[in-house]
Design a protein that fits this description.
single chain; alpha/beta; six-stranded mixed β-sheet; 9 helices; 29% strand
């Protein structure tokens, strides 16, 4: 790749937060550049239809530009938008959603909701950290990958991770480097509940007793619960504290709920945002005490159980048998008895499924990034007058919105949820009515 530097003016921002410009007649996506800025950039990758580049110098700055708080920004790939003022990040995400709805779904919402946002720092309570000993550096690294690379970034702290972990990356590095089998620990899973931080260390070979003792001592000294994950198929097990309680929990005070989960379970990354997101979803559903509600992709019951506090009945459906069992456990734990849960492949729904034979007044969707396209024909035949769709991918939301419009629903309201500040990841909530 040529090391030639090219000056250009940025025309717009791509969906992943990169500047877009025409460089030598070819669309080029430029990391670290913002609309209306004049930048000096260097090509990093060439493709048939487009090129990629990296900003070298900013010659004229956009008013939205700010100084990144993290000293590792630009090297670490964990964040892509710290150079953008936080409110501008939210506006960018909102415009991305509206553009996708217009161009992909061919639909415009009747109303735009106020965005949901919170603190942009220390918010991340779930993460997977890489671990690697780099011989050339003589150093053991703990953290995220470098930007556009499979190499781990050499970072000392992370301000977006919960402080119980984000301020301890160097301590974790020292801990693992001191083990006899330091090169057999490839990753650490992070899970932070309301009151407990849990770390799960994956190890490829059996650990020495001295290594296990070192992990326990670290947990004791730092008030962190320590789990080990032997190379599959062995199960995850807790080694500190020495008790039988493997579960963590988070509360939903508005609904008097205590939600239990295992550190490896899927939970929302940002608990500060999760609570107002649930509240807004339920307000949009406008649940009545006589309603029967369907919650698709229900997970451990994050939306299902709050809905159960308001509705006559709620049915939760999820692809993972393990998560369905967790949802049932949470219902019992919170003494909720107006729920039913089913395990089903929602990407290949069965017409004969018991839960599809029921009638629903309202429906909530919270699918993965691939969306809920396969479910829409079934939803269109239901009696549900309202559907609330919580999305983590604007493009599949837009696609599915187009399908719902085709099936006689109207897109009434849309709003963004800034679940992942400083990244290009976009969460959206949308209300459809028939």
């Amino acid at each position: 790749m040529s090391s030639e530097h090219i000056e250009t003016t940025i025309e717009s921002l791509s969906h992943d937060g990169r500047g877009v410009a025409l460089v030598k007649g070819k669309t080029t996506f430029i990391s670290g550049a913002l609309p209306q800025e004049k930048v000096l950039c260097k090509l990093t990758k060439k493709h048939r239809r487009y090129n990629e580049a990296q900003t070298v110098e900013v010659h004229s700055k956009a008013r939205e530009r700010t100084t990144p708080e993290c000293v590792h920004f630009g090297v670490c790939g964990g964040c892509s938008m710290q150079h953008v003022e936080i409110q501008a990040q939210i506006q960018f995400k909102q415009q991305t959603v509206l553009d996708q709805l217009k161009h992909v779904g061919k639909v415009v919402p009747e109303k735009i909701l106020s965005p949901i946002f919170g603190s942009p720092w220390g918010y991340r309570r779930k993460a997977r950290l890489g671990v690697r000993y780099v011989i050339k550096k003589g150093k053991l690294l703990v953290g995220f990958r470098e930007k556009c690379s499979n190499y781990l970034a050499d970072i000392e702290q992370c301000p977006v991770l919960h402080p119980s972990v984000g301020t301890r990356l160097m301590a974790l590095s020292a801990l693992i480097r001191g083990l006899t089998q330091y090169d057999q620990i490839p990753q650490i899973e992070v899970a932070v509940s309301d009151h407990v931080t849990a770390l799960i260390f994956r190890h490829m070979t059996p650990l020495a007793e001295s290594d296990i003792a070192a992990f326990c001592e670290f947990g004791k000294n730092n008030n962190i619960h320590i789990y080990l994950q032997p190379n599959p198929p062995a199960v995850v097990h807790k080694i500190w504290p020495n008790d039988s309680e493997d579960m963590l929990s988070y509360s939903l005070p508005d609904y008097q709920l205590d939600m239990r989960f295992h550190p490896l379970d899927f939970t929302q990354v940002n608990s500060e945002i999760n609570r107002p997101m649930i509240k807004q979803a339920l307000e949009l559903l406008d649940i009545q005490s006589t309603d029967t509600v369907l919650d698709l992709f229900c997970g451990l019951g994050n939306f299902t159980l709050p809905i159960a506090r308001l509705a006559q009945k709620v049915v939760g459906v999820e692809g993972s048998v393990q998560m369905v069992e967790r949802a049932k456990e949470n219902a019992a734990h919170n003494q909720i008895n107006n729920t039913e849960f089913y395990a089903a492949n929602l990407m290949e729904p069965s017409k004969s499924a018991i839960w599809l034979q029921k009638s629903y007044d309202k429906i909530l969707l919270d699918p993965p990034r691939t969306g809920a396209k396969e479910m829409i024909p079934f939803l269109s035949n239901s009696a549900a007058k309202r559907i609330v769709y919580v999305s983590c991918n604007p493009s599949t939301l837009a696609r599915d919105a187009g399908e719902l419009i085709h099936h006689h629903y109207k897109l009434k309201q849309v709003g963004v949820i800034n679940m992942f500040p400083h990244t290009s990841h976009i969460e959206t909530i949308a209300l459809f009515e028939k």
